[in-house]
Amino acid sequence: MVLEGLGKPPGCKLIRLRADLEGGLIRSIRIRGDFFASPEEGFDRVEQQLAGLSLWEVAAAFDGLLQEAGVEVFGISGEGLASVLFAALTRTRPGEGT
Length: 98
What we know:
Blueprint: E1 2-7, E2 15-22, E3 25-33, E4 36-38, H1 40-49, H2 58-69, E5 72-74, H3 78-92
Antiparallel strand pairs: 1-2, 2-3, 4-5
Helix pairs in contact: 1-2, 2-3
């Protein structure tokens, strides 16, 4: 299942994502938006490391991976990312949302 999400969670800038999911696991995810990350290459690696994780692990894993990689971010958090991801999931479930 492919999800596309867009949102501005509390404390975050605009977050736009596209995620390919299979059985509750992230196969791949692309995260973009109005936030800043430095170094950008490190952010790209963190994005890749989210593959294989459960949706329920995303918030803590994202923050932890950023810290391990020494990537500073402004305008995005694991909690904000998870919020946009779950909102997109809710909108795509049959019989729910638009």
